[in-house]
Amino acid sequence: MSEVMLEISHLKKYFEVGNKQTLKAVDDVSFHIYQGETLGLVGESGCGKSTLGRTIVRLYRPTEGSILYKGKEIGVSLPRKEEREFCRKMQMIFQDPYSSLDPRMKVLDIIAEGIDAIENTGNAEKRRETVLHLLDLVGLQEEHAHRYPHEFSGGQRQRIGIARALAVHPEFIVADEPISALDVSIQAQVINLLRQLQKKLGLTYLFIAHDISIVKYISDRIGVMYLGKLVELAPSDEIFRNPLHPYTKALLSAIPRPDPKIEKQRERIMLEGSVPNPVDLPKGCRFCTRCPLATEACSLSEPPFREMEPGHWAACHRYDSAENK
Ligand SMILES: Nc1ncnc2c1ncn2[C@@H]1O[C@H](COP(=O)(O)OP(=O)(O)OP(=O)(O)O)[C@@H](O)[C@H]1O
Ligand SMILES: [Mg+2]
Question: Residue 209 Cα, ligand 2 centroid: separation in angstroms?
Answer without folding.
Answer: 8
